[in-house]
Amino acid sequence: MKALIVEDEIMASTRLARTLEENFPDVEVAGATDSVAATVEWLESHPAPDIIFMDVELSDGDCFEIFRQTEVRSKIIMTTAYDSYAIRAFEAGSVDYLLKPISLEALSRAVSRCRERRDSGDIAAVLRSLGGTAESRPPRYKRRWLVRLGDKIIPVDSGDVAYFYSEDKANCLVVADGSRYIVDYTMDALEHRLDPDQFFRISRGCIVSRHAVKSVTRHLNGRLKLSVDPVCDTELLVSRARVDDFLAWLE
Question: Is the peptide bond before 101 cis (omega within 30 degrees of 0)?
Fold first, then answer.
C-alpha cells in the first residue's frame, strides 16, 4: 500500500515515516507534504495513494480545506494532538483518528482497518466480475448530515435539505427553513453521497433538491435560472451542458 504523510512538523513526519518503514513492510511512503496547498497540488499530480496520514492543523489552515479544494479518494487516518476534531474527521470519511503521540498499537489498528477495507473492496470487485450479488445491491446514500453551529452539533436529514452551494471557498447546506451550515465535503463528494432521484448537480457549485425548485426560466447562453425556496443569496443557474438532463430529471 502506498501512503502520503501530511504533517507540518518535520520531526513528526520523519518519525512516522520511519515507524512505518520499520513495522509495516507492505506500506510504502510515496510522499510527504506540510500544507493544504502542497497537499492539493500533490494529490492532483500523483495517483491516489492507498492511505493518507493527515495531521489536522497544517501550516496554512486545517486539513478539512483539502476536501473542499479537491477530491480525496484515499483512506484517511487523521493524526492530531487534539480530540476536538473527531466528529469532523469521521464525517470526512476518516478510517481512524489517532491522538499524538501515536502509539505503535494504535497505528497498527488503523493500518489494519485500511487493509480490511482494501480487501473488502477487492472481494466486491471479484463478485461483480462473476455476476454475483454485490452488483445488484442498491447504492447506499447519505440520509443524515451532522453540521456544526458554534459548540452545537445538529443532525440534518437529507429530506430536509433544499440545496448545497459554494460560497467564498466553502460549501454550504441550506435546509427548508432557510438555515445555512458549512459542510466539510467537496461538491464531488456531496454528489456521490446524494440520491440522484432527489438531488441534481446543476453546476460545479450547486446541487439542488427536487422539492426546492419552484420555477425555471430561460437565461443567457442557453442556461436556465432557478427560483428556489428558500431563496438563495446568489443566482442558481443550470449550466448549458446540463440543461437537457436537468429538465428530464425535473420531469
Answer: yes
CA distance 184 to 171: 7
- The closest alpha carbon to 8, from 80, 75, 74, 76, belongs to 80
The H or E element that residue 206 is part of is strand 206-209
In order of 196, 201, 234, 243, the CA distances from 246 in angstroms are: 11, 8, 19, 5
Give this prediction's pTM. Answer: 0.49
Could you state, in chain order, the average pLDDT of each consecutive group of 10 residues for the chain (251 residues)? 94 94 93 92 90 89 84 86 61 74 90 76 40 47 82 87 90 93 84 90 93 94 93 90 92 86
Q: Tell me if 64 sits within 8 A of 54, measured CB to CB.
A: no
Look at the chain and count its residues. Answer: 251
